[in-house]
Amino acid sequence: MFTSKSEQQTKDIANDFAKTLKGGEVIELVGDLGTGKTVFVRGIAQAFGSDARVKSPTFTIMNEYPVKAQQVKKVIHIDLYRFNDASQLSALELDEVMTADSVVCIEWPDIFGQSPFHPTHRIKIDHVDEETREIEIESLS
Amino acid sequence: MRILGIESSCDETAIALVTGKGDWLKVENSTVLSQIQTHQQYGGVVPEVAAREHLAAIFPMLERELPFDGQGIDAIAVTSGPGLAPALRVGVEVAKALAWSWGAPLIPVCHMEGHVYASWLPRSKRLFPFFPQRVPKFPALSLIVSGGHTELVMMHDHGKFERIGETLDDAAGEAFDKVAKMLGLQYPGGPNIARLAVGGNKTAFDFPRGMIERDDFTFSFSGIKTSVLYTLRKNEDKLDDAKFKSDIAASFQEAVVDVLTQKSMRAIEQYKPKSFILAGGVAANIELRNRIIKEGERRVTRVFVPPFSYSVDNAAMIAAAGYFRARNPKNFIEPVDLVADSNMDIV
User: From which residue to which does any coiled coil extend (chain A) (predicted)?
Assistant: First the structure.
């Protein structure tokens, strides 16, 4: 359990976490609006040396950030906030996207009930107050 | 020159037929899937996110609206990015197949460029307007603002864009959508917030105007989202009070419109364009349009705001962009070489 009092601290926590990743991971990010899920993904992408503009994928659904690390070639950032049901997932062609050299981050994985994914990690971020968040990193494999 | 436009970058499937002569365009047909469904159903339109419907819809739409042997079509313009790769690929592959079988030149178009070119589309339905329609003059400055994008772009000439600023996190349209959800409003969030804001007190709450003190043209809307959330949490007892919610909506809308307008005006003062173009779905917001037009026209020759049907995703704007791209044969591509690019950039 980590406490973050700023966007930078969230990114630092994400940076340390990213150092444990080898490619092929599927990471769920769970937390209310404004907890810093996208900030966390920004931290991961930056840890892999990406200078990509990591922005909210709520409307784009899926963003892909090329990175230049040894084992990881891209960070895929998915946001299911606008989805209504699981049948829409097939449109994402996730099998092609979840590869051994990619790290996939999914926001709102449980938007229609139980998450249909088999994540390797789950990051839970909770509001404590306006400036403070609690971040829990769970390894599931 | 008659251009077939195809768009399928995310939610929408759209096709259009646009004829251009000189700098003037005429839209013969602009068909957008979600609009067809409006006529066929009695409820509201549910956005088909990541439309798996793209593939099912596109051929019936083409068959119904076009001369299917490609007679009279001089070129095909298709959104090749940015967007959701599987959705983009439907439009791209269909465009490639048609270009190949009709022997028609193929032009890849950036979706954002399409939004800017929506201002070249005719605003009047009259076939013979008394005066030819004014079109933007270069250099033009555009604020592209939608659910997925918020950026300021200089257009030095046809096809010559320079990004001068963008959002670091959320797009303005997304902020509208999420705040609408917090207030219990239905889809579509933006128009419903605008409606709720009518009669509300826009100074009741001082929501953060992200990045407004910074001299540059960066935007940020994730902070205002959290600020509204906390205000609602601190006032849980007022959540049934219609006046309270109306004040929240009005104050939120005011904060967003403030930032978008102020940054745009500062950009006009710095870059001194001859025209200003408001582009993207959020251009439909009346407060934003009015503020931008009022303050913009004090500073530039003309402010352009396309009609709503061309502000939201559509293929007429793609055909318009394609028409001007077609002036330079270097912008054509062999069908076999065209690949959808989810990260395509306007610059």
Answer: none
Whether B10 sits inside 8 A of A61 (CB atoms) is yes
**pLDDT tens, B39-78?**
444 333 344 555 557 777 888 888 888 876 788 999 999 9
The pTM of this model reads 0.92
Secondary structure, 3-state, B282-341 = HHHCHHHHHHHHHHHCCCCCEEECCCHHHHCCCCHHHHHHHHHHCCCHHHCECHHHCCCC
* Residue A92, number of CB atoms within 10 A of its CB: 23
Q: State which residue of chain A sits closest to B230, comparing Cα positions.
A: A130
Task: Determine whether the interchain pair B50/A88 forms a contact, defined as Cβ–Cβ distance below 8 Å.
Answer: yes
Residue B8 carries which DSSP code? -
Using the beta-carbon criterion (under 8 Å), do B46 and A84 form an inter-chain contact? yes
Q: In chain A, what are the domain boundaries?
A: 2-139
What residues of A are in contact with residue B222 (Cβ under 8 Å)?
34, 38, 56
3-state secondary structure of B268: helix
Q: Closest Cα to residue A25, out of A57, A81, A90, A69?
A: A69
What CATH code is assigned to A2-139?
A: 3.40.50.300
Does residue B314 contact residue B14 with C-beta atoms inside 8 Å? yes
Helix (H) / strand (E) element for B201: namely: none
Q: Which residues pair with B84 in a beta bridge?
A: none
Which of B51, B147, B173 is the closest to A91 by Cβ?
B51
ipTM of the prediction: 0.91
Domains of chain B, start order: 2-121+309-337 (3.30.420.40), 140-305 (3.30.420.40)
A93/B86 CB distance under 8 A: yes
